[in-house]
Write a structure and sequence with these properties.
The chain is α/β, with parallel strands linked by helices. The protein is built from 30 helices and nine strands. The strands form two sheets. Strands 2-3-4-1-5-6-8 form a seven-stranded mixed sheet, with helices on both faces. A two-stranded antiparallel sheet has the order 7-9.
């Protein structure tokens, strides 16, 4: 067989957070395809790679699973692929099982289940560098002898041991390992007969299907097998793992005594969050200034190359001003991603999830909802997709419905445009941004408390969370995550926002006015006409026509609000400071200031609550398999946002604020 053809199919299995996806990316590089499993919303990732022997294999990254007794859609897909019951998916030739060496005993249960299915197996013992730093001493040779499969020590993050792992994937693959446990004669006979029945029915994997059928129909047998498996794991760990001394464990325990304390823990959490948001403003000032200067220089240079006219206006005032007006916030977005990745890498984020579990329980959710909600601070779309790990369907639906109220990074360009108009110092701005995120989160949790009981009665779900030992930040992994997310933002600015900026410029430029006054041109343009139509709707919020049209445009992408405002004010050399100065000087027809603190608060409140992201609505429809839920969420959040902004502005006016 030639090297250009695929010689075998390998599936990658492992517990969530075992480093499976990192290993997949390391092995396959750019040779990846992403789709969905037939009839499911769960993603299917596959790729190809070569071994040192010249073999070319296909690698399929199965969803993370704690066991093959499924409690979530992800685990069900993994189980179905391995027993050969997944539609349009062939059974694999080998299973590459990824185990977290820092939590070896807990992860070995999945390995025993995989061995029971009758596949050739190779074990990638991942995070061995972290295990060694924690004082854990692993004996891969002893573990290989106990389980009958090769154990290869690796670190997917640093690519340590990757060559040795590829060398272990020799082809043809070795025979499957024998089952590690043996039951009473009656149980063994039941498994034998069930396997024969699966063979007669031409099941893809008769041994796996036969065993699964016995476990499903015989609770006593299932309990016996689980007990026997755990006993075997305990004996194997005694041989293959030497635990750290008490001094190393005590360090993590001493830190946890503070970070998990019912009072001190919340104080530390609050201080950390305020520091993060203060840093977003403080440390982004210089790079934002450089981007603004670069934008100004580019506008001047391009404007000089192109003669005056509509084409020059399109390039300078439409494209460069529109896209540049969003890219200027890239430093702040990078900083937010950096701090989230840093807290995850050191082990603190798991403690934050532990603290939040108590809060989540009070609103009818479990700690399993915290991590998807946390992902929503970066982007609602991966957060909604992360709800697949929630086994309780009603809890999953409730989490999806409230998740857009965690303020994603797309809202940052709006917040960081308006907040400086209200507060001068970085500390006050940071506190304001922290308050915005807190308000969205608190409202989301209150909404869950009201919504969850109305979705039907469900059994309370249990929250299983691993608390890793504290460790030094893994800078390579952090930088990789930040760069990937930053590139995704730049790509969005170069596609969606570029297209919308051109549309917005067209609406602002045409039809042409006979007057040279830009205010008259604005009023007579398509955008001005749209603004006139919706002005009666937005006027009670304290907004003018330009804010109203910017709000309408931002339903495609929230960042466009900033671009629309920039284009509406049409300056030749736009930068952030000039933009804010211009907004501060804006007045209404009666001469009163337009962008007052109360109006700014009204805008911010609207953007906290409005679901102005049509791609999110599409993903919600896909994940819930219902346009009713998706469109209901869009309409409900928009109406709520409008009423909240209305109350803020009107009550503020009654109290004498401007």
């Amino acid at each position: 067989m030639s090297n250009s053809s695929i010689e075998a199919r390998i599936v990658l299995v492992g517990n969530p957070n075992a480093g499976k996806t990192t290993l997949f990316n390391t092995l396959t590089g750019q040779n990846q395809k992403v789709g969905n499993y037939t009839g499911a919303t769960v993603s299917r990732k596959s790729g190809t790679f070569f071994t040192p022997h010249g073999h070319r294999f296909e690698l399929i990254d199965l969803p993370g699973a704690y066991s093959l007794d499924p409690n979530s859609p992800d685990e069900e897909i993994t189980r179905n692929v391995l027993i050969g019951n997944q539609e349009d998916e062939e059974t694999p030739n080998l299973v590459l099982c990824v185990l977290d060496a820092t939590h070896l005993e807990r992860h070995l249960y999945l390995l025993i289940q995989v061995i029971d299915l009758g596949y050739p197996v190779v074990v990638a013992l991942n995070k061995t560098d972290s295990a060694e730093s924690q004082g854990l001493r692993l004996d891969p040779t002893a573990l290989s002898e106990k389980f009958g499969v090769p154990f290869i020590t690796i670190s997917a993050m640093t690519e340590r041991g990757i060559t040795q792992l590829k060398q272990a994937l020799r082809h043809p693959f070795p025979s499957p390992p024998v089952r590690l446990w043996k039951g009473p004669a009656e149980l063994e006979e039941a498994i034998k007969q069930s396997t024969k029945l699966a063979e007669a029915n031409r099941e893809n994997n008769p041994a796996a299907s036969g065993l699964m059928a016995v476990l499903k129909d015989n609770p006593e047998a299932k309990e016996f097998i689980q007990k026997t498996r755990f006993e075997y794991i305990h004996r194997a760990v005694e041989v293959g793992l030497q635990r750290p001394n008490d001094e190393l464990l005590a360090l993590t325990d001493r830190i946890d005594a503070q970070t998990l304390h019912p009072v001190k823990g919340w104080c530390i959490f609050t201080i950390l969050m305020i520091t993060v948001f203060w840093s977003i403003f403080k440390f982004a000032e210089m790079p934002m200034g450089l981007i603004e200067q670069g934008q100004e220089t580019l506008q001047g240079w391009v404007g000089g190359l192109i003669g005056e006219g509509d084409f020059q206006s399109l390039i300078v005032d439409g494209i460069i001003a529109g896209v540049g007006g969003v890219l200027v916030f890239l430093p702040q977005i990078i900083l937010l991603f950096f701090f989230i990745s840093l807290l995850e890498s050191t082990g603190y984020m798991a403690r934050a999830a532990y603290l939040m579990d108590g809060v989540m329980n009070k609103v009818g959710l479990s700690g399993k909802s915290f991590l998807p909600l946390l992902s929503g601070y970066a982007c609602a779309i991966p957060g909604i997709m992360a709800t697949r790990t929630i086994p309780n369907n009603k809890e999953r639906l409730a989490t999806i419905l409230i998740l857009p109220w965690t303020s994603c990074t797309a809202r940052l360009p709006v917040y960081t445009l308006i907040i400086p108009l209200m507060f001068a110092g970085a500390l006050q701005q940071g506190l304001a941004l922290f308050g915005i995120y807190a308000l969205g989160t608190i409202t989301a949790l209150l909404a869950a408390k009201i919504l969850k009981p109305r979705l039907g009665k469900t059994e309370p779900s249990q929250f299983l969370l691993e608390l890793p030992t504290y460790q030094r930040p893994q800078w390579r992994h952090i930088l990789q995550q930040v760069s990937e997310r930053a590139f995704a933002f730049i790509k969005k600015a170069g596609t969606v926002i570029l297209g919308l900026s051109i549309i917005l410029w067209f609406l602002e430029t045409y039809p042409k006015s006979d007057s040279d006054d830009p205010i008259v041109q604005q009023a007579e343009s398509f955008n001005g006409q749209i603004g006139e139509i919706i002005e009666p709707v937005v006027a009670p919020l304290g907004w003018d026509t330009r804010m109203g049209t910017a709000m309408i445009a931002s339903f495609a992408a929230r960042e466009v609000f900033r671009s629309s405002i920039a284009i509406s004010y049409a300056t030749d050399e736009e930068d952030g400071k000039e933009m804010r100065d211009k907004l501060s000087a804006s007045t209404r027809s009666d001469g009163t200031a337009l962008y007052t603190p109360l109006v700014g608060l009204s805008v911010i409140v609207f953007f906290i609550y409005a679901l102005q992201c049509l791609p999110t609505t599409v993903i919600v429809r896909r994940e819930t398999d219902s346009w009713n839920w998706a469109l209901g969420q869009l309409a409900g959040m928009t109406i709520f946002a409008y009423l909240a902004a209305l109350l803020v502005y009107q009550i503020g006016k009654l109290l004498g604020y401007s």
